[in-house]
Amino acid sequence: MRKAKNIFENIDYLSVILYLVLVFIGFFNIYASEFNDDANEIFNLSKRHGKQLLFIFISSLIAFFLIIIDWKFFFSLSFLIYALSISSLILILFVGKITNGSLSWFDFGSFRIQPSEFAKFATSLALARYINLFSIKKFNFSKTILCFGLVLIPLLLITIQNDTGTALVFLSFVLVLYREGLTENVLIFGLSIFLLTIMCLILDFFVFLIILFFIVSVIFYFLKKKKKNIINILVLFVFCIAYSYSVSYIVKNILPKHQSDRIMVVLGQKKDPYGIGYNVIQSKIAIGSGGLIGKGFLKGTQTRFDFVPEQSTDFIFCTIGEEWGFSGALIFISLYLALLLRILFLSERQRSNFSRVYGYSVACILFVHFLINIGMTIGLFPVVGIPLPFISYGGSSLISFTILLFVFLNLDSYRLQILR
Amino acid sequence: MKNSLRKNVVALFFISVSIIFLVKLFYIQVLNEEYKFSAKNNVLRYDVLQPVRGLVFDRDSNLIVSNQPAFDIIVVPREVTKIDTTVFCNSINILKVDFIEKLNSAIEYSKYRESIFEKQIDAITAANFREKLYQFPGFYLRKVTKRIYPHKNLGHLIGFMGEVSSKKIKEDNFYIKGDLLGVSGIEASYENKLRGKKGMSIRLVDVHNRTQGKFNSGEYDTLAIRGKNLISTIDIELQNYGNQLLNDKLGSVVAINPKNGEILSLVSSPNFDPEKLSGKNRSNNYKKLINNRTKPMFNRALLGEYPPGSTFKIINSLICLQEKTLNVNNFYNCDGKYFFEKDRSVKCHKHTSKVNLSDAIKYSCNPFFCENFERYFNKFDSSEEAYKNWFAHVTSFGIGDWMNNDFFSGRKGLLPKADYYNTYYGKNNWNSSTIISMSIGQGELLITPIQLANVSAIIANRGFFYTPHIIKTIENELSIDSNFTNKKFCSINKEHFKYVIEGMFDVVNSKNGTAYNAEIARFNICGKTGTAQNPHGDDHSIYIAFAPKNNPEIAIAVFIENAGWGSKWAAPIGNNLIQKYFELKDK
Hints:
The complex is a heterodimer of chains A (about 425) and B (about 575). By secondary structure, chain A is mainly α. Chain A has 2 domains: about 5-15 and about 30-180 and about 270-415, no CATH class; about 190-255. Helices cover about 70% and strands about 5% of the residues of chain A. Chain A has helices spanning about 15-35, 50-70, 70-95, 115-135, 140-160, 165-170, 170-180, 185-200, 205-220, 225-255, 255-265, 280-290, 300-305, 315-350, 355-375, 395-415; strands at about 95-100, 100-110, 110-115. Chain A has a 3-stranded antiparallel β-sheet with strand order 1-2-3, covered by helices on one side. The model of chain A has no long low-confidence stretch (mean pLDDT about 85). Chain B has 2 domains: about 50-230, Penicillin-binding protein 2a (Domain 2), CATH 3.90.1310.10; about 235-585, Beta-lactamase (3-Layer(aba) Sandwich). Chain B contains 20 helices and 22 strands. In chain B, strand 8 (about 200-205) and strand 9 form a beta hairpin. In chain B, helix 10 runs antiparallel to helix 20 and helix 13 runs parallel beside helix 15 (about 365-380). The interface of A and B includes residues 36, 287, 291, 301 and 367 of A.
């Protein structure tokens, strides 16, 4: 057992410091994006930066509490937490409140909670516990299906809530499963499907066919010309055509207009500076106008004067880019990457696969947020509303990511005791 | 695949995504300038501060063009709520259809930005409107200045203001759409002096176009600098008197101070009130003026082209004297007709038959000048050579070419080149007889009143002139354009002038002169009448004069359209004007 006096000796302080630095970068940028010439006191609870300060305080209390608690609490309650989380996701379908087109908030008067934020934590725990249950290095088919099931249930429930962004985050568990031994073919398959999807959307269908035919011919040339291979390749070819045809059909005819438009804007197939592309253009203008060294703290005109929508939540990176420039963005991304790699490093030193799987889940969830959020502000990803962990304004988001991270830091501090 | 390798794959994936982000960020933040430009467009609003236009005074410091506060109504369509349009329209006197049309065009321009709803409403209407302004959210009043013309008949001289054309905006980046600029007269020719310098105030706005403060605390703001005041050469009282003299007539009077080329008055009748061409009824009034049969918008003094008639005999006499084909002591016997071909003749009017040069000018004897024109031609080997030499002399009087005065518009008149006759009749197939009407100022010859006034000034000066100009002094400038202060000589030597001036003196002061008037003898006026044959109607009545005979101060040209003999209308009007000039001077 960990002795009480060792509690704070075994904590990974590098992670805690990185966490704190990022949280305060977030706070100051929220302050900057809300800044105007009147009412600028830092402790103003009617303003977002004031509230964020309160959330930071609450998060710190929770973090402290999570550090001193015994690790067995999470280990043994994993499935219960998961079950509670799934129930809340189901419940919200009936009593939730619609915000920005998503049915994803519980409303308690002035206080609102978004259960999908906590579902990430619950799913991570459950997945880690499930893999730990069998402690098998190699996946067999039925276990794989069950692992995917654990992930897919919350993913589908959140998709029903029309919160595509959060649902996408659950794809991060594929990376976790890959680390735990899922065949790399899954990744290759995923990547191929991704490329195929983009190609069929941006290329003329006829050109697409020619390119596809060319690739297939090259593969065929290098393979041994056995009868079996020929049939395989033909099947693949037909599958590709059928897949891409259905993708373009879905995007153009079945998806809601705003979603297909967002995809087309990112792929450069559609220009619409005042409509669907407005967010991305204004966000790129804000970031681009920052230049090499930025305009300086509180001097960003684009974000302060509301040209960038949602500048304190989903588009908080614009404030960083505009006021701190490329050098600021470079430091920020390096810090973020440092935290991600630190978590990976900590995960790898765990003796138990419960802690390791959980750690990987934390890193990958944070990473997918990072990927989608910054990707969309600089026009590399469609606009899907998900926050930048620790940085974006929002209590649910900050608290849930704090829980996610500090539970792992707790597990890490017990790494010498958790053996299996 | 080993787990350690898989670990690295995940880490590598994280790192490569971060690198892709940084590359993209480097591109949009450091390499691409477009986003910085767009950012400025987003937040910076450049407010133009209109300068106050310069004033114009006459030579005795009477204000002839001034400014008066007026108001533009500005609208920001986004802020407009449901208002009582009837009250609105009544208070500024517009129709409801206009209201809707104006508001729609403002909406079309921008819902968030301000546009001008109504231009230059006067102070009284604006005061009424201001009282009701609280009922009309989204509408504002902006103080501007309006041009005021205290004298109602100076339209030709001062000109008027009009909205800048898109062509002009392209040429001169001073202007933006909706600006006013001088269209004619002094307003146009001294536009660059009068307009001043625009100021600029740069402010920051948010996404709803709400002002958020000054850009860099106003460091880049500039104030508007008012336009320069001008002092005109015009004597407003003489000008008004000239207008009265030409009341109900078609014609023009130009009076010049021969000592310096300053235009003392420039009258073209009928006239128009420049104020009618500014403000709300502009287009209606403009239509009326344009459709008027008497063409009040046509500046006859600058643009009217007439044959100079007998006034041109002075120039021909001077050329013959210079070329020594005319002896002032020789007498010519006029028998009332001059046969330049066997059966074609130029007629004369009754006068004593024996005439020398001064007599010929006094009586305006046609045959005398025909005869001398032929003599002059006979001096040369060919008609073409003679004509070219003659052409050069005439040109030196500023005839047939641009005057380069400081008016915005003008005409060259017409002085045909020798080639014209070569083409028309065939080379060597024409001679002095062919163009004999040139000797008495008819034929192809055309001249504008201001050109003829300048000829009058040249005679008064005995051989030189200053280009006529309308502006005497520009505020804060040491001198006017050197083109107006350089003495220019004509090709005739000074000594020849006294003979023609004797004749011109007799025209006014000798009992049988064509413009005799005993009452004005004390002014020592020298003049010459002219009657220009007009193929479209009655003859034009013409007169040139200067006074006093020695050391002249004023030189004039008068044209009265379709008024018959020069002695009938033009000469009395001209003499009257000169008389007025001296009366004003003595006052």
